[in-house]
Write a structure and sequence with these properties.
By secondary structure, the chain is α+β, with helices and mostly antiparallel strands. The protein contains five helices and four strands, in the order αααβαββαβ.
Length: 151
């Protein structure tokens, strides 16, 4: 764990909102020189605070108008079945995230589809045929509020 001051927290929030922000612009915003700001960002990156920079794709603009959270309970649990399921599910392009969770389900998937009939196709042809799949529960996303994180 790394010690963070208010400027570090501000930099983290600013970069979570826009990872393309330059050290120069961030330095001006937080009262730092460009080199001092860059050193702080480098220290945060080296400490593992940032896992990488990614583009936040607009699923609607790409033609994926439906997002479904899918709870998956495996019929048989064991190390082999978990690994088989994980290996197979990550190969499905419509599955955006795979989370191994505690609770009534073993996995929570975030699945995108063009529409509900496309989701049904993905569900029937790809997800329900995965190794070990038992019970499923689908929740369709109606709206989403994004928060940058705990900082």
């Amino acid at each position: 764990m790394i010690a963070l001051d208010d400027i570090d927290r501000g930099l983290i929030r600013a970069l979570a909102a826009d990872a393309s922000a330059s050290a120069s612009a961030l330095g001006r915003r937080f009262g730092l020189s460009q080199p001092a700001c860059w050193r702080r960002i480098k220290r945060l990156r080296e400490a593992g605070v940032f896992r990488g920079a990614r583009l936040d794709l607009n699923a609607d603009a790409l033609g994926f108008g439906v997002t479904v959270f899918l709870g998956v309970k495996l019929a048989v649990k064991g190390r082999v079945s978990l690994e088989d399921f994980e290996r197979a599910v990550v190969a499905i392009p419509e599955v955006q995230t795979v989370e191994h969770v505690l609770g009534p389900f073993d996995y929570r998937l975030r699945v995108v589809a063009r529409d509900l009939s496309d989701f049904e196709r993905v569900l029937r042809r790809r997800i329900m045929t995965l190794p070990g799949v038992g019970n499923l529960e689908a929740n369709v996303l109606l709206s989403e509020e994004r928060r940058p994180g705990p900082i």
